[in-house]
């Protein structure tokens, strides 16, 4: 091939590469105008769906037959029991009131019910254990042993209301602990947007209600207390006492310092939100790390016998065939 033919081919290759580069640059510049923004449309659909769910849930709550009250009136039977046995002083115990508040029970109704249950529960367990042991079970034991069993059942009945309340407190704290980092993120967004702490707490309680009703209830109570209490510090301290969680107490400390000294709240909320999220992740990792020791006993009891049977059975069959 002659040199005169090579030069035009190289020029053609350069021209073709330049055309491809121009076409690619043109396509890159015009691509946002040619392709529709899928992310924006998806975010709009998600926002509309979220608003539709919120409206539906609010309509469902408003359509209930009776209104929901945080304070309930005690039943006449429980009030008569408290009055007859002179248990009014126990109903005024501050530690008992705080215990019931941590479980989500407020007002005089749950307090009177709890005190009356501590009277009725051991009596009911006493009669039930006596009927079961002396009549239905017919144990061949001395009378003293049977009486001790009945008294043990009665003592368990006395502790039964306390165990129920403690179980309710544990479940409530777990629900609040899981949703608290998300609530802090929402609170941080509201504060950085310029909302006051009352408006921010009210907005967060509305948004977090579908995820954790317990936390929404506590934040709503805090908002109400901030409105009518003279000492705003007391409202934040009440939130820490009702939840009894370290993450909530640290945030309450920051809120009190911000109210007292005027320190900026956004940076502290950002740090506390990250710490609470890390704590939630470490708790999940701790539970995942605790699974292998917990699975050891079930595997020994249920998995290894089956494995041994699968391995040994063919050898046993062969030995039986040889004989």
UniProtKB/TrEMBL annotation:
**Occurrences of domain Type II secretion system protein GspF (ranges):** 184-312
Q: What is its main location?
A: membrane
- The keyword Membrane is assigned to this record: yes
Q: Which domain of life is it from?
A: Bacteria
According to the record, the segments passing through the membrane are 12-35, 111-137, 143-165, 295-317
Localization in the cell: Cell membrane
- Which keywords does UniProt give here? Cell membrane, Membrane, Transmembrane, Transmembrane helix
Instruction: Give Gene Ontology CC terms.
Output: plasma membrane
Q: Report whether Lipid metabolism shows up as a keyword of the record.
A: no
Q: How does it sit in the membrane?
A: Multi-pass membrane protein
Please report the name of this protein according to its UniProt entry: Type II secretion system F family protein
Query: Whose protein is this, by species?
Result: Microvirga aerilata
């Amino acid at each position: 091939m002659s040199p005169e033919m090579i030069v035009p081919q190289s020029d053609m290759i350069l021209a073709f590469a330049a055309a491809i580069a121009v076409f690619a640059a043109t396509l890159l510049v015009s691509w946002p105008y040619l392709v529709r923004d899928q992310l924006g449309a998806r975010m709009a659909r998600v926002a509309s769906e979220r608003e539709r769910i919120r409206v539906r849930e609010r309509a469902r709550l408003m359509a209930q037959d009776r209104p929901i009250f945080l304070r309930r009136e005690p039943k006449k039977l429980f009030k008569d029991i408290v009055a007859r046995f002179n248990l009014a002083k126990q109903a005024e115990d501050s530690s008992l009131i705080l215990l019931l508040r941590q479980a989500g029970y407020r007002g005089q109704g749950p307090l009177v019910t709890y005190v009356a249950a501590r009277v009725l529960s051991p009596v009911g367990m006493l009669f039930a254990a006596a009927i079961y042991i002396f009549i239905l079970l017919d144990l061949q034991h001395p009378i003293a042993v049977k009486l001790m069993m009945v008294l043990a059942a009665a003592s368990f009945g006395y502790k039964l209301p306390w165990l129920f309340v403690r179980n309710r407190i544990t479940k409530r704290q777990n629900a609040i602990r899981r949703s608290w980092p998300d609530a802090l993120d929402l609170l941080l967004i509201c504060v950085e947007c310029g909302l006051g702490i009352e408006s921010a707490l009210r907005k967060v309680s509305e948004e977090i209600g579908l995820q954790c009703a317990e936390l929404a209830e506590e934040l709503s109570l805090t908002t109400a207390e901030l409105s009518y209490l003279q000492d705003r510090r007391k409202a934040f301290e009440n939130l820490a006492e009702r939840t009894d969680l370290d993450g909530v107490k640290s945030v309450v400390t920051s809120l009190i310092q911000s109210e007292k000294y005027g320190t900026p709240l956004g940076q502290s909320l950002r740090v506390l939100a990250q710490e609470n999220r890390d704590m939630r992740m470490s708790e999940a990792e701790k539970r995942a790390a605790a699974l292998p020791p917990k699975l050891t006993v079930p595997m020994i009891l249920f998995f290894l016998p089956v494995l041994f049977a699968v391995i040994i059975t063919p050898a046993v069959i062969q030995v039986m065939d040889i004989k």
